[in-house]
Amino acid sequence: MKIILKNITKTFPSRSRRVHTPVTAVDHFSFEIPDGQLIGLLGPSGCGKSTTLNMICGLETPTEGQIFFGDQDVTSLPPENRGVGMVFQNYALYPHLTVLQNILFPLQNLKGKNKLSKQEMLNRAQEAARLVQIQELMDRKPGELSGGQQQRVAIARALVKMPHVLLLDEPLSNLDARLRLQTREEIRKIQKATKITTVFVTHDQEEAMSISDCIVVMKDGLVQQTGKPQQVYDDPCNLFVARFLGTPQINVFKGFSKDGGIYLNDQKILSAKNLPDQELYIGIRPEGFILREDGPLSCQLSGIEVMGRDISVVSTHPACENQAIRSIISAENKVDLSSSVVHFALKPGKVFLFDRATDARIPADLA
Amino acid sequence: MKKRNYKGWLYLLPAILFLGVFMVYPLIDVFIYSFEEGYNSASQTYYGTGLYNYSYVLHDTYFLQAVKNTFILVIITVPLSTLLSLLISMAVSSIKALKNLFQTVYFLPYVTNTLAVGLVFMILFKKTAYTDGLINLMLAWFGKGPVDFIDGPYWAKMFVLCFYTIWVVMPFKVLILTGALASVDKNYYNAARVDGTSRFRTFIRITLPMISPTVFYLVITGFIGAFKAYSDAVALFGTDLNAAGMNTIVGYVYDMLYGNGGGYPSYASAAAIILFVIVLTITCINLLVSSSKKRI
Amino acid sequence: MKNQIDYIKIKASARRRRRFSQICLYTLLSIWGLIVLFPFYWMLLTSVKNYNSYNSEHIPAFFTLSPTLQNYKDAFTSVPLARYLGNTLFFTIVTTGIMMIVITLAAFAFARLSFPGKNLMFTLFLSLMMIPNELVIITNFVTITNLDMRNTFAGLILPSITSVFYIYLLKENFQQVPDELYRAAKVDGTSDLKYLCKVMIPICKPTMVTIGVLKVIECWNSYVWPRLITDNPDYYLVSNGIQEIRENGFGRENIPAMMAAVVVISLPLILLFLVFRKKIMSGVSKGGIKG
């Protein structure tokens, strides 16, 4: 089912006794989620992504704006009538019920003509359990399961109602690193298999990028950028998005443009066409560096970190805003550690220019 | 090093002294008293040991009346006050505006003097030569005749006693239950809402199991407290509870000890021990029931 | 299209249900609030009613247009209410004060000092928590009588001084003070007692205030022990005073004056409660029992 968010805003009354201005959690958010896609809502904590999810779910009502499921306005519809399944951050599995009882729970709520017979319920529960591969855990209590298993039970419980929309709130944050990798692939697989429109919230950009069809980057209640993960990564619309996506983080320098050239201090690193002279932030992705003796950018070498396939060259530069510059280069390159200076050429496609005052991206034709 | 070792005892000394004299010694002594037949508190002599004190107490009509009263009080007030406090704390937990005000008001009876407010209840319920009292006035609105709740029929007196007891014990229960309800993770309710669970079902299947340890704690303390009822009855019916036919077991103990029929610490001890055994038995039964429930 | 209408209907009914349940909740809460508050209102109301007009009311009036303070004057003049209040105040302050000293020392010993037999002693203390007061009060009564301390403050106060529960509560709180502070104080050559007074007590003041306030409530409302141990009105506490007033006071029928006395007795605790509301409520929920 297609979900349309039209200009939704959510304000909360101030919690502090002294300040009475309401807090705006989500600010005029508009977005359309195509049917059957997996959308990642991404942002640092407190950016309003969970509030947005709760509004889609119906646990909270927008202060302004409308939410549509398909053609229907569901803005103030209570959650039970929306046909959504939700997986909570801490899973919210009822500790006193077994896994089977937990999965059956949503089905037992159905009333009237939707009511199912005992056998049907059991079949549905089994089917959901098979989807997430927990058939052999049905008689255990949630307390006896590992984090990953609890996670699957929670997904099964959300799926058993056959919802039109599946909502996941930080679904992987309680799992350890290895399990996270595995579970996120499984979520992707299940989503592909069921074709349920899925929205999930995370603060982990890697997680969002790796499984989403489309990501929405949020900050302070405002949508910064939406798009396909690769597209957002390659073409960030402002400094925040550029910084938020990608590990290691993008390297940011203070610089300026003059006479068709981009300068860091007095080093001209690239040339740009038709760019007025101005102060800039210059962002260079770690993979945008090329190790070359005659490269225009020279940095103080601090060391290298070997990562197997790649090596990460750590260096410093006076104009750099980060603590250290990290550049990823292929392990085939040899870095002369005895030298204190390292020279880089840059890949123009991996260099972004931002306005010093507004942080907004400045489109430029770099070479 | 050795010197410091014993300093700890020095700090404990006052506490040990007081507890020893006023708790440990009495605890042993009460059993001795209960077996000493014909103890005379003036001459501090007795002429035999045995179970006579117990048999006397168990055959005393006043004691049997007191046991009957206490049991009726327990059976009525414990379930009723627990249910009512559950209802009220659920309601308090699910509102936002005025929550603090309601909580404060509901807690007020806890800090009031049982005897003093009991007097107010007596006046509200009492029927005198001049006036039928406020409650009877209200009954009259429904066309029911005046009943003297304080000096009248047994059921009326019992009603007042139960009513007042519930009024007195509610603050504690509401406070504890509201705390327990607040500690249930809100996500469980959100999950239930998303699944379209009705309020009633949410309560039965989620809330109740989650707070059941607290409810159970309240039931046990409620039983123990209700078995020890005494000052509520005094507040309503005066010190001569035997005459009013509204004595409780604890009241019987004190009356045996001191008062119009007093001066018999042996009988008092026997009655106190019987009470202790009853309370212990009920508590054990409660524990057994709850642990067997958990297994299912 | 039909679906669309269904959605609107569902929305409307959901809103209606929510409003209805809100109304039900507030009605229920208000009713119970009324039941709780009404006795207080009635006692205040009756206490300002004129004696004669009260007695001529066959049907009790819910308000009075001519409030009088005469009843309060009567309450203080025709029965020794001031004496009862003074006694209770003295009893409460002395009992609470001594208890605080005793339990602080004991809790400190259990929480910080090491001495042989500590664990055994603590277990014994804990097991004393299960002893019902009714069992020990009999012997205490005999003991105090034999010591010839009936109708004395010593007889009233001594058995009420220790509370195992409060020792336990305070010990738990003391233990939360980091060990490092104690070691640092030892290195500086601070004596245990000085450490207790200068470090522990200031840090744990909130809990100590809570315990103190709970004990004050308990003392102010205590009835059974004072009743057993005093039969001379000079030593009556307010609870016994109220009972005495009820049975022999204002010639039994002066109910407005009686209510005035009740108001005077109840007021200090209600004020105390309003001041220490949060402390009292959190203290009680930690395990207070109706005193």
Automatic annotation (TrEMBL), chain A:
Annotated transmembrane regions: none
Keyword Nucleotide-binding carried by entry: yes
InterPro entries: AAA+_ATPase, ABC_transporter-like_ATP-bd, ABC_transporter-like_CS, ABC_transpr_FbpC, ABC_transpr_MalK/UgpC-like, Mo/tungstate-bd_C_term_dom, NA-bd_OB-fold, P-loop_NTPase
Record keyword Secreted present: no
Gene3D superfamilies: 2.40.50.100, Nucleic acid-binding proteins, P-loop containing nucleotide triphosphate hydrolases
Example GO molecular function: ATP binding
Organism superkingdom: Bacteria
Annotated ABC transporter domain residues: 3-245
Keyword terms: ATP-binding, Cell membrane, Membrane, Nucleotide-binding, Transport
Any one Pfam family match given in the protein's UniProt record, by short name: ABC_tran
PANTHER family the record matches: MALTODEXTRIN IMPORT ATP-BINDING PROTEIN MSMX, OSMOPROTECTIVE COMPOUNDS UPTAKE ATP-BINDING PROTEIN GGTA
Record's protein name: ABC transporter ATP-binding protein
Organism: Blautia ammoniilytica
UniProtKB/TrEMBL annotation, chain B:
Coiled coil: none
InterPro entries: ABC_transporter_permease, MetI-like, MetI-like_sf
Gene3D superfamilies linked: MetI-like
Mode of membrane association: Multi-pass membrane protein
Domain of life from the UniProt record: Bacteria
Pfam families per the UniProt record, alphabetical: BPD_transp_1
Keywords: Cell membrane, Membrane, Transmembrane, Transmembrane helix, Transport
CDD domains named among the record's database cross-references: TM_PBP2
Transmembrane segments annotated in the record for this chain: 9-28, 71-92, 104-125, 158-182, 203-227, 267-289
Residues in ABC transmembrane type-1 domain copies: 67-286
Protein localization: Cell membrane
Family affiliation: Belongs to the binding-protein-dependent transport system permease family.
Annotated protein name in UniProt: Sugar ABC transporter permease
Species name: Blautia ammoniilytica
Organism lineage string: Bacteria, Bacillati, Bacillota, Clostridia, Lachnospirales
From TrEMBL, chain C:
Topological relation to the membrane, as annotated: Multi-pass membrane protein
All copies of domain ABC transmembrane type-1, residue ranges: 85-276
Source organism of the structure: Blautia ammoniilytica
Transmembrane intervals: 20-44, 89-110, 122-141, 255-276
Origin organism lineage: Bacteria, Bacillati, Bacillota, Clostridia, Lachnospirales
UniProt similarity note: Belongs to the binding-protein-dependent transport system permease family.
Keywords: Cell membrane, Membrane, Transmembrane, Transmembrane helix, Transport
Keyword Transmembrane found: yes
Annotated PROSITE patterns: ABC_TM1
Gene3D superfamilies, A to Z: MetI-like (1.10.3720.10)
Protein name: Carbohydrate ABC transporter permease
Subcellular location: Cell membrane
InterPro entries per the UniProt record, alphabetical: MetI-like, MetI-like_sf
CDD domains noted in UniProt: TM_PBP2 (cd06261)
